[in-house]
Amino acid sequence: MLLLDEPTTHLDLQHQVGLLELVRKLARQENLTVLIALHDLNLAARYADRLALIVDGEIKALGAPKEVLNPEMIAAVYHWPVRVMQHPFLDTLLILPEG
């Protein structure tokens, strides 16, 4: 098992993606379970097989990114309206804050 707490904090885009691609590769090659705490919903949507939205230690939603990351749930958890759409060239969601 690999446990990572905000591993992409303070990294530029190249290193964020590179690190998460490496973690994904290691997980598959070594048959590892990986648990990552992330605040970046777009990275979570792109790299997670399953997500848990946690508020004050309570799981508010659990499931595949397309099940969990919907505008209503995100707005309820983060107190900000968002638009959730299909990423234009990746098989993942894209979350954009409104306003």
Description:
The chain is an alpha+beta fold and 99 residues long. Helices cover 37% and strands 29% of the residues. The protein contains 4 helices and 6 strands. The protein has a two-stranded parallel sheet. It has a two-stranded antiparallel sheet with strand order 3-4. The protein is globular. 13% of the residues are buried. The model has no long low-confidence stretch (mean pLDDT 96).
Helix content: 25-40%
Total helical elements: 4
What pattern of helices and strands is seen along the backbone? Answer: EHEHEEHHEE
Can you tell me the residue ranges where pLDDT is under 50 for at least 5 consecutive residues? Answer: none
Strand content: 25-35%
- How many angstroms does the end-to-end distance come to? 39 Å
What overall geometry do the principal axes of the alpha carbons give?
globular
Coarse structural class: alpha+beta
**Integer-rounded radius of gyration:** 14 Å
The chain-level mean pLDDT equals: 96
Spatial arrangement of strands, main beta sheet: 1-2
Number of strands: 6
Largest sheet: 2 strands, parallel
Keyphrases for this structure?
single chain; 37% helix; alpha+beta; 6 strands; 4 helices; two-stranded antiparallel ribbon; 99 residues; two-stranded parallel sheet
Write the layout of secondary structure elements.
Elements (H helix, E strand, L loop, with lengths): L1 E4 L7 H18 L3 E4 L3 H7 L3 E5 L2 E6 L1 H4 L2 H8 L3 E5 L6 E5 L2
Task: Describe what is shown at a glance.
The chain is an alpha+beta fold and 99 residues long. 37% of the residues lie in helices and 29% in strands.
